[in-house]
Design brief:
The structure is a single chain. By secondary structure, the protein is α+β, with helices and mostly antiparallel strands. It has one domain: Nucleoside Triphosphate Pyrophosphohydrolase, CATH 3.90.79. The strands form two sheets. Strands 1, 2, 5, 6, 7, 8 and 9 form a seven-stranded mixed β-sheet that branches. Strands 3-4 form a two-stranded antiparallel sheet. A hairpin with a 7-residue loop joins strand 7 and strand 8. It is globular, with a radius of gyration of 17 Å.
Length: 176
């Protein structure tokens, strides 16, 4: 069982102006499907478009700012900087990214995810950016969590989040 996919990058943004982490809240159809089941998503093979708002919310996850590495002319770090601007609205210098680690996403992907940490300030925020790329079908909200509150979130089973998010937070707690 193999799914062809691209390698990716994930970025833990720490806004030091307000001492908050900047995450993204993003709709993931697979999360909704596995949470509520396919029967709610289709009737007689037809896709349902009228899913109740509360049910739809169960398909959102809180994640690191992230993106796939699909541009051959850009390094992983350059791609990460573009994703930070696109998803969170901060203009960063890719040379300021601090590597956290690279991990393999097991099971059917086997892809490599390179994770980074970067400090940002309110002055680095660019008007009109953030929220993802609508043309790519992204539905992203920027979420800020106080640094002192985030460790509680790591162990909150009600918060849907990928393992890379948890890994980056634990890395921060041990190294920063």
């Amino acid at each position: 069982d193999v799914t062809h996919s691209h390698n990716s990058c994930g970025i833990l943004l720490h806004n030091i102006t307000r001492n908050v982490f900047v995450f993204v809240r993003q709709f993931r159809p697979a999360v909704l499907m596995h949470d509520v089941g396919m029967k709610l998503l289709s009737v007689n093979g037809e896709t349902c478009v009228n899913i109740e708002h509360d049910t739809l919310q169960r398909g959102f996850t809180v994640e690191l700012c992230a993106g796939i590495i699909d541009k051959k002319d850009k390094s992983v770090e350059e791609t990460a900087a573009l994703e930070v601007l696109e998803e969170c609205g901060y203009r960063i210098n890719f040379k300021d990214l601090e590597p956290i680690s690279s991990t393999r996403l097991p099971l059917n992907l086997g892809t490599l995810q390179s994770m980074f940490y970067i400090k940002v300030t309110d002055d680095m925020k660019v008007d009109g950016y953030g929220g993802g790329n609508e043309e790519e079908g992204e539905l992203i909200q920027v979420v800020e969590v106080k640094v002192e509150d985030v460790l509680k979130s790591v162990f909150d089973d009600q918060l849907p989040r990928p393992v890379g998010w948890t890994f980056a937070i634990v890395w921060f707690c041990y190294t920063k």
